[in-house]
Structures are given as C-alpha cells and as structure tokens.
Input
Amino acid sequence: MTMTDPQAVSQPVERVSAKTRLKWLRDMMLIREFELRTMQAYQEAKIGGFCHVYIGQEACAVGCIAATNPDDPVITAYRDHGHALARGMESRYAMAEMFGKIGGCAKGKGGSMHLFDKRTHFYGGHAIVGGQTPLGAGLAFATRYENEVLGEGKKRVTLCFLGDGALNQGALHEAMNLCTILELPCIYVVENNRYSMGTSIERGTSMADDLSTKAAAYGMPYFQADGMDVCAVYNVMKRVVDRMRSEQRPAFVEINTYRYKGHSMSDPQKYRTKDEVSEYEASDPIRRLADALIAAGALNEDGFKELNQSVRDEVRDAIKWAEQSPEPDPAADLYSDVVTEPFGEYGPTSLPEMCDHEPGDVPESP
Ligand SMILES: Cc1ncc(C[n+]2csc(CCOP(=O)(O)OP(=O)(O)O)c2C)c(N)n1
Ligand SMILES: [Mg+2]
Output
C-alpha cells in the first residue's frame, strides 16, 4: 500500500497572482546569480572549505518556502544557499559568511555549509548527510509544545529538506519513526536530484523508482512534485503545508529536480553525460516561469532584463560587503558563541585553558 494522496497531487493549478509569480522569478534569479558569483569567488580563493551550489534546483526552495508562514521553521543540508535566500536572509550576510567574515550570518564561523538565521526561522545548513533530519523532528516537537503546552495558540509546521542521498541514513528513519509516533508536524522534503555525490539514486537506494514506499513504512502521506516548475512545487506544497498545519502530523514529499553543476566545487562529473545535463537545462525553471509570464502578458523581455540587472546589482553589493567586512579576531571571537551555556567547572571559561596545548600534546583529561 502506498500512502500517495492522488487527490492532493491532481488538484487544479492554484491561481497565483502575476505579482507573486514575478517575485518567485526574481527570487530564483537572485539565487542563480548568487551561485554564479559564489563559484567565481571560490575560484578566486575568496571562499574556502566545501562549497555546494544550488543551480538548477532553485524552484524547490522558492516554491516550498512560499507555501509556509514566515515563522515556520526551515532546516536543510549543506547545499543551503538557496534556502537561506528564499527564506529572506539578506544576500550580503550569506556571502560574507562564505568569505569567513564578521559580517556573515554566523560571524564567519559557519561558512557555506552552515548558514543560519534565527531571525527568519532558518535553522541551517548541516554538513552531516541526514544530520538535520532528527533536528527537524525536534523543531516540530518544539512548535507543538509551544502551541499546546505553553499556550502559544499557533499551529506551525517545520520544513526539513534533505537530499536523496540522506534517504539511506539511519538518522532519517529514527526521526521519521518518532514523528509518526509523537505526531510531529514535520514535512520531510526530499530534493531528488538523482545523485548523491557521484552515486546515482538507482545504484544506492532501494525502491528508487517508488519513494512513496519510504513514507508508507512510517504511515506518512506521500506527495510528489516537478521540481523544474516553481508553480507545480508551490501547488503541491501549499496543500501539504496547510493540511499538516491543521492535522499536526508529519508528511513526506519528493521533489524531482536536477543540479546543473558538479556536486561541489571539485567534481569531474564522470558519472553522468553532458547530454543528460543539457536535457535538464532545457527545462530550466527560471526560463520556464519567465516564458509563462511573458505569454500571460505580465512580463516582457525588457522587464526580464531589468530583473536580471537588479539581481546582479544586489549580488555585486553582497560581494562588496563581504570583501570589506573585517576578518574575525581570533583573540576576541574564537571562543565566543561556541558554547552558550556555562555547564560547570569545564564550561566555556575553562575551554581556552584546556585547549592551550602544543600540537601533538594530549591535554590532561578533566
Ligand atoms: C554522514 C556523512 N557521510 C558522508 C558524507 C559525505 N557526503 C557529502 S555530500 C554526500 C552526498 C549526499 O547527497 P544528497 O543527499 O543526494 O545531496 P545533494 O548533494 O544531491 O544535494 C556525501 C556522501 C557526509 N557529509 N556525511
Ligand atoms: Mg542528491
């Protein structure tokens, strides 16, 4: 038995105003431009560490997040720039974070894989594959507790994004089990871009051609959306979000998408053909929405160029902000914001002392 909900998936297209769709177009264009400039800055060695761009997948974050309320928690994996921007993080704080600068959203301590913005209820950015999935359950537990026990009077849902590679992590299965048992309003959104690093989903995942089986194992309703079409993503997600908000229980969504660039900044991409990439690029979500808006008379080529210019200007400013932002001062910042609660004798004040040893020395155990 699958828990697919054909009714929810086959509903007629939601009528979304042209103004809203223009906003989605700009949001996707901003992410695309941001990622292109990120790749450039990485090649110029202005960004260090691991870095994974979201080009091709923009419709997923934009369509899903558009279906939430601003205070619904959102959490994701390391390919997180698009989600942070779609959630409303200012591009300059995201860029400066990747530059490792004080002006970044986590004062330069998180980097590309750990963007975080409590203000917009964006809870990261997590580098361990599947690591965010129990945290998603925890966020959903917290919102339910706040509503029902602390009397907040507001039902919220958590969006927990994951890649197809995370489907095989034990943590996800423990988290999904808990969500069902405890009735936690967590929506697991699998961005199925068909690869985890260089391993195709068919090679690494059981029942790859029917992921509804994963949801069925935990009694969750399953939904699917075309991730190359932001309106299709929104239409499915709006119904899922509204329903889970009211029912306060978990759901599982598969979004079929594709990444145009390599897994990370160093990837020879021997596991796929150039034709395969071109095939997906031909159904590009940005061009698709722009064409639909042009056909509807809500946009013309000049308007499209203006949008393009405005996102270029914004990202250029973000780069400038990141370049001009100071480096963190190790003396002042190394131990700040790392441990926030003192926990006794070995709390944060004693940490510098405990760590003050020559490389190779083994510090005395406390
Ligand atoms: C627990 C763990 N194992 C392995 C890795 C190395 N690793 C980083 S990304 C990745 C692939 C994950 O693919 P997927 O979940 O499909 O996400 P995508 O890169 O496609 O967005 C792997 C295996 C890791 N970060 N964490
Ligand atoms: Mg993947």
Remarks:
- Residues 335-366 form one domain.
- The chain has a mean pLDDT of 91.
- The radius of gyration is 21 Å.
- The first helix runs from residue 6 to 9.
